[in-house]
Amino acid sequence: MSDMLHDPMVLRQIIMDHYEYPRNHELSKDAGYCQKHMASDSCIDDIYVQAKIANGVIDDIRFDGVACTISTASTSIMSELLQGKSIAEARQILEQYYAMIDGKNYDAQMLEEAVAFHNVGRQANRIKCATIGWKAIEELMDESEKAHEQE
Amino acid sequence: MLDVHKIRKDFPMLEGHRMQGMPLIYLDNAATTFKPQSVIDAVTHYYTDISVNAHRGDYELSYQVDTEYESARETVARFLHADKREIVFTSGASEALNLVAYGFGRKLLKPGDVVLSSEAEHASSILPWMKTCEETGAELTYIPLDEEGRLTADNFERCMDHHVKIVALAQVTNVLGYEMPVKEICEIAHRYGAKVIVDGAQSVPHMPVDVLEMDCDFLAFSAHKLCGPTGIGVLYGKYEYLDWMDPFLLGGGSNARFDMCGNIMLKQPPYKFESGTPAIEAVLGMKAAIQYIDSIGMEEIHAYERELHRYVVERMMKMDNLVVYNPYSDSGIITFNVKDVFAQDGASFFNANGIAVRSGQHCAKLLMDKLGTSATIRASLYFYNTKEEADIFLDVCSKATLENCLDIFF
Ligand SMILES: Cc1ncc(COP(=O)(O)O)c(C=O)c1O
Question: ipTM score of the complex?
Answer without folding.
Answer: 0.80
